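Request: Show me your protein:
***
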Amino acid sequence: MRMSFQTYVKIAVIGTGLIGPRHALSISENPEAQLVCIVDPDPAAKSVATKFKTTLYPSIADMLSSPHKPDAAIVCTPNHTHVALSKELLDGGVHVLVEKPISTDIASGQDLVTHAERSGLKLLVGHHRRFNPYVVATKRALEEGSLGKIIAVNGLWTTFKPPPYLDPPTEWRRTSTAGTVLLNLIHEVDIMHHFFGPIVRIHAEKTISQRGYDAEEGAAILFRFASGVVGTFVLSDAVPSPYSFEQGTGENPMLPRAAQDFYRIFGTDASLSVPDMRRWSYDGAKEKSWLEPLSQKALDVEMATPFDLQVATSLGL
């Protein structure tokens, strides 16, 4: 009689703030993964552990010395803790997926990368939006040359974070290491790299401060890419606006979907707005001219859940 045994990748979630429970859900729904525990000293984390029917530990040290030591862990804690906690996990023999940003400064980020290389373990950074269906569809259009040679891109991430978002127990979001650049623009920069390659030059002007905290509230930014593409981006977390990735795609169910475009990509053959995925061109016109009417076509988008795809992809690395 032959017996087969299912093997799982044992994963722990470190931190139960906004994003930790979402990762826990993706792990619990993946047949090749097992959520073995959650780590968070906050008493409120008990309800999260109860929801996912898993064990709660107050520290990484307690977890590493327990029967629930994982193969890998996802770090979902405040920005300034990412490096220290990731190192502690690596030193304990645990692979790490750390939520963006990898660090709050270049030196400590490079130090963490070196630390991971010496450990021989995997260190991944959580940029789940590369798996977003609208990002996947846009990347496919770019790779297929649907827009021709890319000339320029315009982006927006503008919304309004209410006062409670920055109040205790998450007042760390008021600090200089937790402004909208490291919390939000970092996603957009990663997607720009994903679409157009490395950025080689940047200029930015900060918006005025309305809240009076050390955390910046926004900026107007000019990019140049190694490919020759140029881009502009307006960023703000302190203005009423429907123009942001989350509101445009509906990716975050906590935020009402507005379905307004937040990227416009301009090529020699066509332009594309995202997330309505409308490709504008002179296809079928007598000539390429502003005197001719533009035609539009909606590109296909295959829907999927980015966090689920990120976990599935990580399991294969």
User: Anything to note?
Assistant: Residues 1-5 have pLDDT under 50 and may be disordered. Residues 180-196 form the longest helix (17 residues). The first strand starts at residue 9 and ends at 14.
